[in-house]
Amino acid sequence: MALYDPYGRPIDANASNQNDSKQGHQGEYANPAKNHAADNTDGPTKSAISDDSSVSTEKSQPDTDDKKRYRLQQWGLFVQAALCIFTAFAFGAAAYYAWIAKEQLEAMTESLNEAHVQNVAQQRALLVFDGDPMSLVNGDIGMRIRNMGHMAATITSYTAAYAQSVTGKPFLYRERRIQPNTMVTPEDPAVIDIKPPVIPHVKVGDRYLFQIDLTVSYKDGFGNTQHVHSCLSLRLPDSMWEKSCMWVNVIDLSKDNPPATSEKQNK
Questions:
Q1: Which helix (H) or strand (E) holds 208?
Q2: In the chain, where are the structural domains located?
Q3: What is the pTM of this model?
């Protein structure tokens, strides 16, 4: 039977089969994946999706580990920062309590010192010169000293400094220091013996000064060294020593442009 195309031309059957075979080969070479799938219809199909998923899983695994390590690092930094803050608060609290303890210790120490000072002031030995100078049997000058405290005092030393000044005569100064180690109780006063100097002749109208500065050092019973001072002046013309000491500024108006001088004079 003869075949015709839509234009009325006869079709060769052999040529048509050759063209179909050529197109089949061309289609096989054009899409090898389909040919392979068609040839292996009985076996399991392998798709490229499985390969892509395995690759993505392998790539996502390191990302997950990095995120875990990052979270651990962040947590470690947070813990370290919290420890630093807590440590700073702990040191601050310790410093504050140490400051409070120091203030309390200083307050207690000050209170104890004040109590000790008051106790010492109330209980310690207190020496004072009692009365005016007196003439002793041997001709010396006696100064009575009394203990007004509650504990016995020990006189470790006393110093007598003598100053003499008379018009027309050179100035004279002497100083003696004695270490008697004499104990003075509140019940029994003591007498300090002073050998008087030789008094020169003084004319009427002369300016004069005969003075003894007496300083006594003693232990007050608490290991502290205390001092008591007195001053003696000779009163003329009766040659009596009295407990007096004063400075008098003297201005000489007998000459033109007189210089101002200062000297000691008894009253």
A1: strand 208-219
A2: 51-123, 127-249+259-264
A3: 0.52
Provide the token pair at 67.
């995120």
User: What are the φ and ψ backbone dihedral angles of 258, each rounded to 5 degrees?
Assistant: -75, 140
Q: Report whether the peptide linkage leading into residue 237 is cis, meaning its omega lies within 30 degrees of zero.
A: yes
Dist CA 140 CA 132 (whole Å): 14
| 191-221 tens-digit pLDDT | 999 988 888 888 888 888 899 999 999 999 8
Q: Name the β-bridge partners of 176.
A: 160
Q: Which CATH class is domain 127-249+259-264?
A: mainly beta
CA–CA gap between residue 251 and residue 31 (Å, rounded): 145
Ranges of beta strands (E only) in 51-152 are 127-129, 134-135, 141-147
Residue 256, Cα to own-chain centre: how many angstroms?
65
Confidence bin at 164 (pLDDT 50/70/90):
very high
Q: Which long-range contacts link 260-266 to residues 24+ away (Cβ below 8 Å)?
A: 263/165, 263/207, 263/209, 264/163, 264/165, 264/209, 264/211, 265/207, 265/208, 265/209, 266/209, 266/210, 266/211, 266/233, 266/234, 266/235, 266/242
Beta carbons within 10 angstroms of residue 197's beta carbon: 15
